[in-house]
Structures are given as structure tokens and as C-alpha cells.
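Hey all, quick one. A colleague (J.T.) asked me to put the 5-O-phosphono-beta-D-ribofuranosylamine job into the tracker so the inputs and the C-alpha cells live in one place instead of scattered across chat threads. No bug as far as I know, just bookkeeping. Sequence used:
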Amino acid sequence: MNAGRAKKANLAVFVSGRGSNLDSIISSCADGELEPLARVALVVASKSSAAALEIAESSGIDRFIYSKDIPLENLLAALADRDVSFIVLAGYVKKIEDEILQNFSGNILNIHPALLPKFGGKGMYGKKVHQAVIESGEKVSGATVHYVSEVYDAGKILDQETVSIDADETVDSLAVKVLQIEHELYPRSIAIALRSL
Ligand code: GRF
């Protein structure tokens, strides 16, 4: 894509919780790595209680609650209505259906709070990841941005950033460090992915 002439890519950001990565992506579209490459056209939440929805609302971004009782067709229609071409998972805990993987093949990214291929896979999320890293005695951890495939956390790695693990590191202190680097890494990686389309 030529950033100078092509129109902005419409992103959908999928969330389930806090939304700090969503926040950094929105900011980055306004005045950062993703300006003028992309805009967030839709925020998809797996539950209505996700705090990330408030961030979307205060930024004037359309929201779609994709809870258990909502058919996949409705989500696909919401994405199509907004001409979404690229999906960004930011703390989204539900499995991505095959039909979405096919429709957005090569155009879905996820961020994981560790250095994949270690410490990933089904059930490895949140503090469990940092706990496993510390227990393993690793001296570094970090965050990984990867393309999404049928297997949890196993798609092609796009970019990584590391943090050192101090002798007195705790799960909570490591979580803070890693989240901080995610906020720079993710917009930068999305920009790389969009430029390579
Ligand atoms: C991040 O740590 C990310 O790596 C993981 O889920 C967390 C989401 O945090 N996939 P937030 O909702 O963006 O604050």
C-alpha cells in the first residue's frame, strides 16, 4: 500500500477486557505510527462488560458486542458494512472462527505478552503467562506480534520486543513492563503489516 495515495485501511479491533492496547492504537491513528495509514472503524467486544468499550465510546468509534448468542453472520455484516480490511486482536479471548480466518486471510494480527514460540498456546493468557516465565528462570521476556492462524499463538511472528527480568521481578511488575512495550510495539507492527499489503 502506498501511504501517500491509498485510502486509509479500516481496522476492527477485537477486545475482551481493559483496552489499553486499543487506546494506544486509536492514539496512533490520530497522531503516530498509524497516521495516515489506518483508522479504527469498529471495536468488537466478546462481552458487554469489557472496559475497552468505554474507550471506543469516548473516541466515537462504533461498537459491536459479539456475545455467545450473536450469530457469526451479524459480525461479518458489521465488518463488511464498515469496509473493514484488517483485524487486530487486542486482549481478545475468544477463538477466531474459520470463516473469519478465511475472509481476512493474512490480515489478522494478535499481540501476546511473552516471547513466542515460548509461553503461548491455549490457556496461556494474562498473569499465567508472566507466572510461567518467572518460574522458568528466564532472564528476558517481552511481547510478540504475530499473524493469527487456526492454532493459538502459532501464526507467523511479525515482530518482538524484549524486557529484562530482574532478580526481584514479580508477576505484577513484569506484567507492567511488558504492557508498556506492547503500546509501542503493536502500532509499529500494524504499520509494518499494512505497508506490506
Ligand atoms: C495484553 O497483555 C496482550 O498482550 C494480551 O492481552 C492483554 C490485553 O491488554 N493479548 P489490554 O486489554 O490491551 O490492556
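Adding what we noticed when we looked at it: The two ends are 6 Å apart (CA to CA). The longest strand covers residues 38-45.
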